Amino acid sequence: MPKLKKKKVKRIGQLKKLADKVFSEYIRQRDKGVCYTCGNVKPWKYQQCGHYVSRMFNSLRYSEVNCHCQDVACNVFRKGAMDEYAIRLVRQYGEGILNHLNIKKREIKQFSRPELEELIAKYKKLNG
Question: Domain residue spans in the chain?
């Protein structure tokens, strides 16, 4: 009788890394490669997924409001271009958005395996 191979179960860290990848692709495609803070346009594959509130805060890590396409100059060299980012967020989502994000980031969030698998499936589907 042949040995059955066990399906390797991905660790939470591996799932989070994959979720980051598919979510980033979605954000950059959604924004059509236009940098949220300076307007620089490049093919989405050459842009980055910029977070207004750092992705270390799990409660906003996969927030479509907190994340927008940014070029490497704004996201890395200008450390997110936070002043311009804030102005755009207020213009797009209204006066209360910065306060909302500040409150939301204080929520403690630990992702479960099923939550991450659901996020991965959702954004893979949206990416086409």
Answer: 21-113
